[in-house]
Amino acid sequence: MQASRARLFKEYKEVQREKSADPDIQLVCDDSNIFKWTALIKGPSETPYEGGVFQLAFSVPEQYPLQPPQVRFLTKIFHPNVHFKTGEICLDILKNAWSPAWTLQSVCRAIIALMAHPEPDSPLNCDSGNLLRSGDVRGFQSMAKMYTRLAAMPKKG
Amino acid sequence: MDSEDDMHDANDVDSYEEDYYSGDAMYSDDDDDAGYEFLHNDSDDSDDVLISRQQKNFTILKEDDIRQRQEDDITRICSVLSVSRDSACMLLRRYNWNVSNVHEAWFANEDKVRKAVGLLDKTTYKPTKARELPCGICFESYLLDKISTAACGHPFCNTCWTAYISTSINDGPGCLTLRCPIPSCGAAVGVDMVNMLTSDEDKTKYQRYLLRSYIEDNRKTKWCPAPGCDCAIEFDLGSGSYDVTCHCSYSFCWNCTEEAHRPVDCETVSKWIMKNSAESENMNWILANSKPCPKCKRPIEKNQGCMHMTCNPPCKYEFCWLCLGQWSDHGERTGGFYACNRYESAKQEGAYDESERRREMAKNSLERYTHYYERWATNQSSRQKALADLHQMQTVHLAKLSEKQCQPETQLKFIIEAWLQIVECRRVLKWTYAYGYYLPEQELAKRQFFEYLQGEAEAGLERLHQCAEKELNTYLNEDGSQDEFNNFRTKLAGLTSVTRNYFENLVRALENGLADVDAHGASSKTSSSKNAAGTSKAKGTKGKGSIRGRTDDSTGWSCDQCTYMNSKNATSCQMCHNSR
Description:
The structure holds two protein chains of two kinds. Chain A is an alpha+beta fold.
């Protein structure tokens, strides 16, 4: 408990100090609970998510950093490895490939990388995975773009 | 498991019989004890031969043996590859503890192997020459003496290392391939670091996984599947029978790790076990119900080993548990026939009441299956009971009997041998019912031959079991005379030997796929099986002339009923009292 709190506090200070280090990631700790974090990440360029801003919710276990944090998308996203309803993410480093050397910041970077390089062979969103697996890249991109516009961009007007 | 050894020893049988019979003929003129001694020594000798033979086939490894072998293998890798014990251990684990595979891979491409296992030959991380270093997990800075590193040099504080390794150990055997926490690094974390940094409890767990890996990853070793047994068996692949027996006395098939099922093959056994679990609902229903006494209809639960049931007074009806028929129909003296192993045999018998009932039973396949399953299960529980009886005999009754009869326990070994034989025979008999179920109906000759052999074996076993269980009781509870007891000794030892022969015939016949049936009249291994194969109506002529090989009036005569070799001046069989 103490170890995880100390470590999270270190990460918190690091985030405060280097706020502008990574302009694509904005990591915020809950005011009253250091085990709850939210992040805003920018959709990577040259992907259907470009221009969108996606919100992630972190729930950090007491055994952190020996156990990985639980992360899910709060913003709806059309992506093979993200559950369309719950926002759950299928990413190896959040499961068995976790290492205590990862930080919340580096998890965000890994999720941005996953957005740019989906893994259609282990899909949580089967519709999305099937589009890619059948080679319909245009179909996938237009769907993903539509949802980005609907859910991840400020409403016009 | 002496009896089992004997059974497997097909080649020695002939010479063994020779010895046995000549010894037997000799003893009838002399006193009983001498004859018994001879018999006794004889079986001991054959055991010794068998034990040495078994050791060629498989080796039982106790925990210490396993550790020793593991250490030896590690030492060999260390000296040949000039690497640390820690590295040698990781290399061996990667190549499933196969020393020559490690050598081969290493000398083919050392760099590739090093990379795959995570053995770095130089550090990848060059720390500054500061007095303090930041831990990569908790991000605090520590003096160098609080910091540890794997071969790569990435610094983590000892507290974080301990927590990191302990988490991995508690996650399971994956801890054996633990790497540096830095995701891109891949340097292995081996047993040295585990020993340096973790609690005793975690160390023990890690060692346990390492030991398990040595057995489980190796193609030639398997754990003994008996509950609570820590031994492993190393098996010489491609050598004969798969049956192995552990120190804990559990016999199992090394190939499929089910309990030993010789002479039935693994495929049949797995089919049978699958079928049993699929049909278990029906079976439970059928077997949960006890059987009513055929005469007075009181429900009876079977709690003793053999099939000969006697209802409580005043009824006292004696019947066979399997077919519920009168027991006197089963005995030898009445000239009746022990038919309970037969499924559809009654046809030939004609007037037999049982036959009508059986034909009815054969109508649907569930009932056919029930027939075999019931006999399989009954023999199974009979065997369990016999095992318990054997244990009871060894721990309690033997001493008591020794006291009562004023004989040293070593002289009473024939009782233990009889029980060992019963336990083994129940096991074989049990599996022959699985065999019988899968033997195609249309192969009439084979079925008949099989059922004949099975019937012979079963009848012999019932006699033996009855004698060991019931008759022995009288000597335990009251002071029988010395003479009576000596007669009992002769009878039980004789029955043990006769039953062993029956089962040897049965096992041999099943193992060569009942080939004697095809080779009609060709010389078969035993005279009894040849006779049975040649006689399609084996029923009526059961026993008659079946074991003829050794009838020679100058030494004695072989009983038509039970094949016992009697002395030449005996007018009735010493074993079954059948007149000559």
